[in-house]
């Protein structure tokens, strides 16, 4: 009998190299899947062997335990971008899950397809975008996704899910923190326009020199977004540890009126807010963190708040997941103590907790 466990251990690989945080211990087995069939097959095989399976795209929204993942990690590397529909004003584009997201945005901008331009510079794979309904600068993928191709681990079947079944919300969907679905491909409907939709984000409108609600050429929007993001350490740069992060570590808390008023009373000033349904407001987590005493550059053991963005917790090159989570817990505790507000992590925590 071959010693399977020894064979698997030989294949153990630290997952740190597959994450933007550069943190995380080995998986018991690491599989690279380059087609949708291979993805589904790898998940089936892991299941048949009684192994938990971790689906990993670009590793830009995961925090993996230092001891690693006790199961099979499946790297999604299936590629392909295909126009599958076209009408008077739009194209429908089918993108395989492993296709690097920013390359898809580049393709769309060059082709004059409108709808993804504000999402320039976000790391990770296309299959990762529906998981938390990726969003930036007033645009989110839920606006353009028309269907998501999935492998259903519960039934072992393949299906196309329409947007209503994806239950997209603020940094969430039916897929986030769920072990049921593996995304194999995503379809987007993009307008053949050459110009962006109305610019909804004040900072972006200022950068473009247009009034809020105006439109701009796609290439100009992409360039402006990339410049804004780079200034915040939100575009990956191997030479800059401020980008060794998961982007924003905490989501902006959504508060009812009384809780928002309590924050204003404590701080003596109002935080930046955005209206939410039911009279609630989304409050800037970065503002709360700063007012609770945690400034840019605030550091722990080999980890620190980015020097460019209060919401990004970074590995300075010699950090550990334990130290990162310790820093996150300190920040969360400080904000709770000062404002009575609970912050929630945006990334998926793998075999570790906060
Ligand atoms: C510098 C930086 C800036 C960022 N800026 C933004 C931003 O502006 N807006 C934003 O929304 N996010 C942002 N992010 C977060 C992240 O890039 C996105 O959430 C991205 O879509 C994650 O994709 P990924 O392929 O890296 O997913 P991973 O990190 O590999 O996985 C994240 C989660 O999704 C699951 N998953 C991944 N692929 C699949 C699949 N095919 N099927 C099923 N489950 C899957 C994983 O199991 C895991 O639970 C940023 C991150 C960084 C590092």
Strand-helix topology:
Layout: H1 4-10, E1 13-14, E2 26-33, H2 36-48, E3 53-56, E4 62-64, E5 69-76, E6 81-86, E7 90-96, H3 101-111, E8 113-114, E9 135-136, E10 139-140, E11 145-152, E12 157-161, H4 163-166, E13 181-192, H5 202-208, H6 218-231, E14 254-255, H7 257-267, E15 273-275, E16 281-283, H8 285-291, E17 303-305, E18 313-315, H9 321-339, E19 348-350
Parallel strand pairs: 2-5, 3-5, 4-19
Antiparallel strand pairs: 1-2, 6-7, 7-13, 8-13, 9-10, 11-12, 11-13, 14-16, 15-16, 17-18
The structure holds flavin-adenine dinucleotide.
Write a brief structural summary.
This protein is an alpha+beta fold and 354 residues long. It is built from nine helices and 19 strands. Strand 6 (81-86) and strand 7 form a beta hairpin.
Count of helical stretches: 9
Average pLDDT level: 94
> What Rg is obtained from the alpha carbons, in whole angstroms?
21 Å
Coarse shape: globular
- Our measurement of the CA-to-CA distance between the termini, rounded to an integer number of angstroms, reads 42 Å
Report the β-strand fraction as a percent range: 15-25%
Attached small molecules: flavin-adenine dinucleotide
| Strand elements, count | 19
Major sheet details: 6 strands, antiparallel
> Which spans have pLDDT < 50 for at least 5 consecutive residues?
1-10
SSE string, helices as H and strands as E: HEEHEEEEEHEEEEEHEHHEHEEHEEHE
- Secondary structural class: alpha+beta
Features:
single chain; 354 residues; alpha+beta; 6-stranded antiparallel beta sheet; 4-stranded mixed beta sheet; 9 helices; 26% helix; 24% strand; globular; binds flavin-adenine dinucleotide
């Amino acid at each position: 009998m071959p010693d399977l466990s020894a064979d698997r251990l030989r294949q153990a690989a630290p997952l740190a190299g597959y994450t933007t945080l550069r943190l995380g211990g080995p998986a018991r087995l690491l599989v690279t899947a380059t087609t949708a069939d291979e993805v589904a097959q790898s998940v089936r095989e892991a299941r048949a062997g009684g192994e938990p399976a971790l689906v990993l795209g670009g590793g830009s929204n995961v925090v993996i335990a230092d001891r690693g993942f006790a199961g099979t990690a499946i790297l999604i590397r299936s590629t392909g971008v295909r126009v599958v529909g076209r009408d008077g004003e739009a194209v429908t584009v089918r993108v395989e899950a492993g296709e690097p997201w920013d390359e898809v945005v580049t393709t769309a901008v060059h082709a004059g397809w409108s709808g993804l331009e504000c999402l320039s510079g976000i790391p990770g794979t296309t299959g990762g975008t529906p998981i938390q309904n990726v969003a930036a600068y007033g645009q989110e993928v839920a606006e353009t996704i028309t269907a998501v191709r999935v492998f259903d681990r519960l039934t072992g079947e393949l299906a196309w899910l329409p947007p209503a079944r994806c239950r997209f919300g603020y940094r969430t969907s039916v897929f986030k923190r769920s072990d049921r679905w593996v995304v194999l491909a995503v379809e987007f409907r993009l307008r053949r326009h050459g110009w962006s939709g109305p610019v909804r984000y004040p900072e972006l409108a200022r950068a473009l020199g247009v009034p809020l609600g105006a439109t701009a050429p796609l290439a100009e929007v992409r360039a402006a977004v990339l410049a804004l993001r780079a200034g915040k350490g939100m575009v990956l740069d191997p030479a800059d540890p401020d980008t060794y992060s998961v982007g924003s570590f905490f989501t902006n808390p959504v508060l009812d009126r009384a809780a928002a008023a309590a924050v204003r009373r404590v701080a003596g000033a109002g935080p930046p807010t955005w209206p939410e349904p039911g009279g609630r407001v989304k409050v800037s987590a970065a503002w709360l963190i700063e007012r609770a005493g945690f400034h840019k550059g605030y550091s722990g053991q080999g980890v620190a708040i980015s020097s460019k963005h209060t919401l990004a917790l970074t590995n300075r090159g010699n950090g550990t997941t334990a130290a990162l989570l310790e820093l996150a817990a300190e920040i969360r505790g400080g904000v709770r103590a000062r404002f009575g507000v609970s912050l929630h992590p945006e990334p998926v925590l793998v075999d570790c907790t906060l």
